[in-house]
Amino acid sequence: MKNGSSNSPSTSLGALVSELGAGVKFDASQLSQAAKDWLDARVTEQVSARVADLELLVQERVAKARADLESRLRSQIEQEMIHEVEESRKREEESKKRCIELEENLENKMKELEETEKKLVKS
């Protein structure tokens, strides 16, 4: 009985013997039931330990990837906010300049109007 992947550890005694290959002289039928049970328990224990190690590794990698992603997103958002603040300041400065120009224009028109009124009164 063989697992789907040749890299996967075997969980049964028969599969373990099969994986060891023909060069190893091992006859599982000569083992007592207690020895077979013990071997089966050891194989299961080792596979379980390896699976637990792999699960921990995956969890660590996921946590690191999540932290990296959060860091990149925070940095990107911060850069976008800085850009928006700069753009807002530029718009504010342009608005102030435009207001000053409009005020100056209004003052000039008021002066012209006053001069025109003076001329009309003199005439």
UniProtKB/TrEMBL annotation:
Database matches in Pfam families: ARGLU
Keywords assigned by UniProt, alphabetized: Coiled coil
Q: Which residues form a coiled coil?
A: 85-123
Protein name, entry field = Myosin_tail_1 domain-containing protein
The organism named in the record is Brugia timori
